[in-house]
Design goal:
The protein has helices spanning 2-15, 30-40, 59-73, 78-89, 101-127, 139-154. The chain is mainly alpha-helical.
Length: 156
């Protein structure tokens, strides 16, 4: 029974949710807090990579949450906060990439490579030569081949 209780206690301890937001860093105004969370859901945790800063427990995510709230207190709009963080940490911090020529090149390069590869393959198929038909052996060729085989078999 003691083993069962210890196992249950360990399981319950491990099953508790991890709270990524410290209560002290939250806004008292629910509207401001909702706005901060909406901005934070657009920012990637640089440690966890595919989590927003509000889904991550990493220290850097905590720093970014505090930074978002500081920028909001200074009166920045949502776009200004996002551009400030992106200028400071790079475009990779944005979960949804910006629409720019640099990003268009990144997205279109694989498609272009696929198209060029398919065109090259089509040209190769089109230009390859047809296999030449093998000429049938004449009776003289067959007789010579049999003679050579007999000579080989007769050697010790």
């Amino acid at each position: 029974m003691l083993k069962f209780l210890c196992s249950a206690l360990v399981a319950l301890t491990l099953a508790t949710p991890a709270f990524s937001i410290n209560p002290g860093e939250m806004f008292e105004d629910p509207a401001q807090e909702a706005r901060a969370r909406e901005i934070g859901r657009q920012l990637r945790c640089m440690v966890c990579q595919n989590q927003s800063i509000f889904d991550s427990n990493a220290g850097l995510a905590n720093d970014l949450r505090v930074l978002v709230r500081e920028r909001m207190l200074e009166g920045d709009t949502d776009d200004e906060v996002l551009s400030y963080v992106a200028d400071r940490y790079g475009d990779y911090v944005l979960l949804e990439p910006t629409k720019s020529a640099k990003n268009a090149i990144l997205w279109l390069t694989p498609a272009g490579a696929l198209i060029f590869g398919l065109l090259g393959f089509a040209l190769y198929i089109r230009q390859r030569k047809e296999p030449q038909a093998v000429e049938a052996l004449t009776d003289a060729d067959r007789a010579a081949a049999k003679h050579l085989l007999k000579q080989r078999d007769s050697k010790p």
